[in-house]
Amino acid sequence: MTLSSENPAYRSAVRKFFRRMLPLVVFMLVINQMDRTNVGFVQTHLKTDLGIGAAAFGLGAGLFFVGYAIFEVPSNMLLERFGARVWLTRIMITWGVVVAATAFTNNATTFYILRLLLGVTEAGFFPGVIYYFTKWLPNAERGRATAIFLGGSASAYIVTGPISGALLEMHGVGGIAGWKWMFLLEGGASVVIGIVAGFFLVSRVRDAKWLTDEEKSALSAAVERDEAVRDDKKTAHVPRWKLVANPQVLLLCWLFFAMSLTGYAITFWLPSIVKKIPGTSDFTVGLLSAIPWICAIIAMYTLAWYTDRTGRRRPWVAVGLVLGAVGTFLATVGPPWFALVALCLGATGFKCAASAFWPLAQHSLDLKIAAAGIALINSLGNLGGFVGPTLVGAVEQSTGSTAGGLYVLSIVSVLAAGTVFLVRARYMPARSRITSPVVQ
Description:
Layout: E1 2-4, H1 8-20, H2 22-37, H3 43-50, H4 54-82, H5 84-101, H6 108-122, H7 125-136, H8 139-168, H9 178-197, H10 213-230, H11 240-244, H12 247-274, H13 282-289, H14 291-310, H15 314-330, H16 336-364, H17 370-381, H18 384-399, H19 403-419, E2 435-439
Antiparallel strand pairs: 1-2
Helix pairs in contact: 1-10, 2-5, 2-8, 2-9, 4-5, 4-6, 4-7, 4-17, 4-18, 5-6, 5-7, 5-9, 7-17, 8-13, 8-14, 8-16, 12-15, 12-16, 12-17, 12-18, 12-19, 14-16, 15-16, 15-19, 18-19
Subcellular location: Cell membrane
Main location: membrane
Keywords: Membrane, Transmembrane, Transmembrane helix, Transport
C-alpha cells in the first residue's frame, strides 16, 4: 500500500527542515539583499562627496549584475561539487569583505570596480539556495519554501531602510562619513554571519544529525521520486550544453529578466522617489521605503499557500507581471505619496510573480541540468538588474525625471506576461494528491 504524503516521518522531516535550515538561509538572504541594495540609500551622499551623478550611479548599481551573470553558472556547479555548507558560506564571507571595502570608494571608477566585484563574489548564492531546496524537498513543498525564502528578500528591503538610515545618521562619528559607516558595519556583519553559518548549515539529508533514520529515509525517498519525474530518459545521451540551450530554458531566462528589470529598478530608485516627499529625512525615507515590501510579503505567502495546493503557477506569474507593470506605470502619474502607494502594487506584483516562477522553473528543468539551468536563468535574468537601473538613471540624467524609464519597464513586463503560457511545465499535482514513495 502506498502511503500518503502525510506519512508522519515525512511530515516530521519537512517540519524540521523548515524550522532548522530555512530560517538560516532566509537570514543569510536578508543580509545578502541588504548588502546588494543598500547603495540605493547613499545616492545623494555619493553625489555630494564624490561627484557621482545619476547616470554614473545607475551604471555602478547595475554593474553588480554583470559580474554576477558571468560567474553564476560556474559558481552553482561548484556548489553542486562542494556542497551548500562550504560554498554558500564562502560566498557570504567574500561578499562581506567587498561591501566593507566599498567604504573606501573615492571616485566613480572605484565605485564601478567594487560593484563589479560584489557581483563576482556573490554569484551563485540565490540559485545555490534554490538548487539546495531541490535536494531537500519534493515539488509539493518547494512553493512554500521558495516564498518564505523570497520573503527574506522582501524583508531585507524592510530592514535595510531603517538600518541603513540609522547608520547614515552616524555621519561624523570618528571623523567618518555616515555612508562609510554603513558599508563598514553592514559588510563586517556579513563576514561574521557567514563564519557562524558554516557551523549550522547541512548540505545533505543524510548528514542531518537532527533527523531520525526513519525521517531521513522518508524525506530522501520523496526527493528521489520528485527527481525521477524530472529525469527525462529521452535526453539521456544529449549533451548538457544542448539541454541548457533549450528554447524553454531561454524562455525562462527571458521571464526572469523581465521581473528583474523592473524589480531592481524599483529597489534602487524607490528611496530617491520617496525622498521627494516633503519633510523626509534619511531615517524616515528608510521607514517609508519598507512599506511596499511589507505588502509584498503578505501577498507572497498567501499565494504560495494556494499554489502549493493547486499546482497552478503559470497563471499567477502572468498576473504578478501585469500587476507590477500597472503599479510601475501609476508611479509616474501622481505626487510622491501616490507614487509610493503605486509602488506598493508594483513590488507586490513582481515578488508574487517571482515566488510562483521559481517552483515552476525548478520543475520544468531536466534533472541533469538542474544546477546549471537554475544558475543560467538567474544569471541572465539578473542582467535585468543592470539594464533597469542604468536605463532609469540615464533617463533621469537627461530629462530630470524617472517617468520615461518606468514607462519602458511597464511595457516590457506586459510583454513578458503574454509569453508565460509558452512555458511547458511538467504536470504538478496538488499536495493533497501527492503520494509518498515509501511503500509499506
